[in-house]
Design goal:
The chain is mainly alpha-helical and 277 residues long. The protein is built from eleven helices and no strands.
């Protein structure tokens, strides 16, 4: 058992180093996304620059929070081509017993964390200081804002690599499945339809699969709870969107569980489905 654990650890270290080196050299894996995030955040920040607190700005505040949730997750699809490029390499090396599926899954997860962290920092800093929703000195607000972006991006990344493993190496199939799931999750996150108006046969998606639900709830509660600047009654806004009883800690736990679910599913697909294919 000790030898097996030691071997797994060594395999993980080697794969993490290789993944990080490849991700640094390949601009299509994360660098293009980082540039897209920066440009898009500056565009959106300029649109909502120093957002006001009048009644007319109330809808604008909700809209920018929803947009952050959607564009942050949709751009994760850009990582599909890079994973599919490495799929054939994984199959060849796996069949030659260079490492096992567990080591590859762990390495893929750990090597993605610094990049997702960097993306979350960039998005948070640009939007926080440009929009100034709560001013620039509210550290607690910024901390929750940043952590929510980071956790949402981690779940989206985990879902995208899982879909890529499921696609059988087909580029368009992976894009179609990932895009379809994202669109469904976004439609049922509580922005377009209030939770009470979602049909009962779609409730399971709202609660169990749509990580946008918990991300949007966290953004809304963090922004509007006890907010009483200008003409905006934040608690009334939360009541209108049926998000007045949100537990932020609980939402972060749910997002963590969703991320782990997709990562475990990714491992199982690599272990059984990809090798069989």
């Amino acid at each position: 058992r000790i030898n097996a654990c030691t071997l797994l650890f060594k395999q993980c270290i080697i794969l993490i180093k290789r993944n990080f080196r490849n991700d640094t050299r390949n601009i299509g894996t994360y660098w293009i996304r980082i540039i897209m995030y920066m440009l898009l955040c500056m565009c959106i920040g300029s649109m909502y620059f120093k957002i006001g607190t009048s009644q007319s700005n109330q809808h604008d505040r909700v809209s920018i929070l929803f947009f952050i949730v959607t564009f942050l997750t949709f751009l994760s699809i850009a990582g599909i081509p890079s994973f599919l490029e490495l799929r054939s390499l994984y199959i060849r090396e796996r069949l030659n017993n260079h490492y096992n599926a567990l080591a590859y899954s762990i390495a893929n997860f750990i090597s993605s964390i610094p990049w997702i962290f960097l993306i979350a920092v960039i998005v948070s800093v640009i939007l926080y200081f440009m929009i100034e929703s709560h001013g620039i000195h509210d550290i607690e607000y910024f901390g929750i804002f940043f952590l929510n972006i980071f956790m949402t991006a981690m779940v989206a990344e985990a879902m995208v690599v899982t879909v890529s493993a499921l696609s059988g190496g087909e580029f368009m199939i992976a894009f179609a499945i990932a895009g379809g799931l994202m669109a469904l999750y976004i439609a049922l996150c509580g922005f377009f339809l209030l939770p009470s108006n979602i049909p009962w046969y779609w409730k399971w998606v709202y609660y169990a699969f749509s990580f946008h639900t918990y991300s949007f709830q966290t953004f809304m509660y963090n922004d509007f709870h006890d907010f009483s600047k200008g003409d905006i009654d934040g608690n009334a806004q939360l009541l209108q969107y049926e998000q007045d009883d949100v537990d932020i800690t609980y939402n972060f736990i749910i997002l963590t569980c969703m991320m782990l679910f997709y990562r475990v599913l990714f491992f199982l697909l690599l272990r059984f489905f990809v090798r069989a294919a």
